[in-house]
């Protein structure tokens, strides 16, 4: 039987190691001039469809690439490959989140200075990815209208670890009786002042504003 | 910097400890004659609404109670209390899954022999809960039509750890262009022969069959 403190100690060491690697990644991204955006959310929130549209829309004007994390399949990389930009899959096995060293490994052989944007799609999980810095400049937390307005209250840490909230599948908002007021109030209560974007990657609502937001963040970072 | 093998070793010990406690729980449930059903799913799959309807529908003919796991809030327990059956919240803090010892702790003071059904709602997470036996007799994995048909392929372990799949929010199937054939094929490919139920807790579709299924499982266990 193991005593709890030892597990906590080991976890703290893993996180510390991750923070060192994430710091190195952040320096490397900055030096190469690539703006790195990560996406976190629960499974099925529409991350991959949003990312596919994002890559397609940005690739007309910017040099973009993506890393995509998944437990078991390369389905997402296959879907994202339709956007015609470089995409690599990180298969995590039974690990429920991406870690900085997985990102470092997946970048092997890529010349980052040839990119404007690099997107990193985390494993679908609203808990564990919150604790792992990946060296990104911007972390988007994705919340679909079908999940309900209470998710920020139930998973506050992931909302706190993110910079901006993106509400997806807004074409289904009426069918789900989604309350914008409740969602906004819940997000603001766990993360006061958090910027919130609304999109339907399927129908196109809000995508122009979302792409303009990313482009502005890239300009600000230069 | 920690070496990977030590972490793995610690995790194995934690699981072994959990298995011992889960075994004790299972013996205790059997002796008391209570049929224990756990629910696992991603956040926002409709677990809590399904459970609220389940408790209400079963409570006319059976003695039922529920434990509900969440990171941060007691929202779910408050929702489930509307069903007028005994409900206790397990707040896990930053732990992304329930463990057997949390269940043992939450049962303190309850006379299990006065119950027919005990439901345990896990934290919303398609990864980590797969590894933790809670002593339940039946584990339901919940998949909402809004999450997409590919979830079984992307999170195979949780489907393998469960006994039966319940597809929820079927009132939204058309709006989401959900493919029953693809969902069934994906479930069967990771878990051949798995029984699949379909419900809309909101509109009532499939709820009679679902309640009859639970009642039959209780009878079989007696």
Structural write-up:
- 2 copies of one chain form a homodimer.
- Chain A has 222 residues and is α/β, with parallel strands linked by helices.
- Chain A is 41% helix and 18% strand.
- Chain A has helices spanning 4-32, 47-58, 75-81, 100-106, 151-154, 156-161, 180-190, 207-221, and strands spanning 35-41, 64-70, 87-91, 117-121, 138-144, 164-168, 195-198.
- In chain A, strands 3-2-4-1-5-6-7 form a 7-stranded parallel β-sheet, with helices on both faces.
- Chains A and B meet through helix 1 and helix 5 of A and helix 1 and helix 5 of B.
Hey, which two chains have the biggest interface? A-B, 42 and 43 residues
Q: Work out the helix count of chain A.
A: 8
Overall morphology of chain A = globular
Low-pLDDT runs of chain A = none
Record field, number of beta strands of chain A: 7
What's the helical proportion of residues of chain A? 40-55%
Helices and strands of chain A, in N-to-C order?
Answer: HEHEHEHEEHHEHEH
Quaternary assembly: homodimer
What structural class do the secondary elements of chain A suggest? alpha/beta
Q: How far is it from the N-terminal to the C-terminal residue of chain A, by CA?
A: 53 Å
Compute the average pLDDT of chain A: 92
Largest sheet of chain A: 7 strands, parallel
* Strand line-up across the major sheet of chain A: 3-2-4-1-5-6-7
The portion of residues forming beta strands of chain A comes to 15-25%
Output the radius of gyration of chain A.
17 Å
